[in-house]
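Entry for the shared binder. Reason: the reviewer on the internal report wants the predicted structure included alongside the sequence.
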Amino acid sequence: MGVHPKESTAQNIENIKRQIGEIAAIYDWDMEVNTTDPEFYKWTQWIFVQMFKKGLAYEKQMPINWCPSCKTGLANEEVVNGKCERCGADVTKKNLRQWMLKITENTDRLLGDLDKLDWPEKFKKMQAEWIGKNHGAEVDFKLEDRDEAITVYTTRPDTLHAATFMVLAPQHKLAAELATDETYHCPKKTMVYTPSLIWKFI
């Protein structure tokens, strides 16, 4: 747009508040929260620093939805039928070093403290499902002719005796290395694409 984001964001806020006023919606503007205000985000930055000091924030290479036309990462909601909702270009995956939070370090406390919230039960249930604690086991599958193993997490280890194959996700670190000419493809408009690798158990 050729406008500094600080200016365009302020204009957008002013415009939406004008629209809300025109439809006579009633809001208590004393309770307004502006996440672009330094007086607000200084506290989110402070919280991040505290998490970093406690080892709860770390950097990791993780795949994101990438639009090669817009040259930006996209949320899942911005990808429609494999295409960028803004420009229609094919969306690919791109590994990006990003900050992660060890939410799982506090799973039990997060779930336990839900009972302290004066929230409707359906929202507590949604939050519990988002936290997503489950019980299972990690199992190592030895690779033939290699000193490595593929670790699989399962909530049903009792069914492993019937397993006949496993699938490696394209972003798995071993996928590109183990791909053969038969399983490696590079379709048009995609810089690098490794399909899922299927391992059959003999």
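Summary line for the report: The chain is about 30% helix and 25% strand.
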